[in-house]
Amino acid sequence: MNDLGPEELEVHRLLGAVRPAPLPLGFRDAVMRQVRDEGAATRWEWIFAAVLALPSLAYLVWTMTAHGAELGASLNAILVAAQGLDPTTGADVVVDGLAIISLALVGIGSAVAAHAMLKGAEPHRMIAR
Amino acid sequence: MTDQEIVRLCLSGDADAYEGLVERYGGRVYNIALRITHEPEAARDCAQEAFIRAYRALHQYDPAYPFGPWLYRITTNASLNLVQRARGHEITVDELPEDPEPPEAGPELSAVRKEDLQEVLDAMASLPPAYRAALTLRHMQQLSYQEVAEALGIPLGTVKTHLHRARAALKAKLAERKGGRA
After folding, report:
1. Tell me, what's the ipTM?
2. Model confidence over B114-127: pLDDT tens digits?
3. CB within 8 Å: A16 and B80
């Protein structure tokens, strides 16, 4: 440290003379235990999220490719009915229960993945200025 | 092995490599937390929390910069947060007088130096946490102004102002204690 000004020398010497406190016994082991647990927990969260979301996503993609036209027609019918342009048009929609469940599972999987990601986020700083 | 190499190993899935960083920085991190919280129990918790938070955020660490100040920043934040949570309200730097009453300069401080250093630590403990953090990083951990700025996440000019006020406040506290004893 070579940017020490003359006005801070005294305090610097004074505080520099304070001997550092020894690290508490078992500190390193405690940290490493948590780090290992942490890694395992996060890994399981990602696996859980993937197991929930990937098959559901695959099903949703398949549904879209196989029945995309029907879905498009249903959405169109709903829009037309909502706008009231054609009173003869019905807004019949066939709801695929499995697709709804898949959507819910993708949502849960995303929440779990978001939690695993947020664990890695840097803490918010709260320094008094 | 450099800090950056250890970080790279950790990011590639070798959690055990992190032990090298805990060993290298454990003492400094604990002492920073201890000087800010002034309680060994709390300092241990803060230091532990700092290492865990750092581990979780390793992917955000930029290896172009030194690892130490980055870790000290996390440690300082964890310690200041704990102090704020524990006491509800602390006097912040803004609430302090611009220039604390200056002590009668050098001789007072020189006399204190010969006394028990515990007196100095006690005087330091009575300062606002932000001052304690700045003094610890600059004078106990021997960081440069730039590194202190990085560790505290504030501009260089603000660090200089903080430290100037912190030193004046510490001198005033020591003079006050000395005066009280006489």
Report:
1. 0.72
2. 456 778 888 888 88
3. no
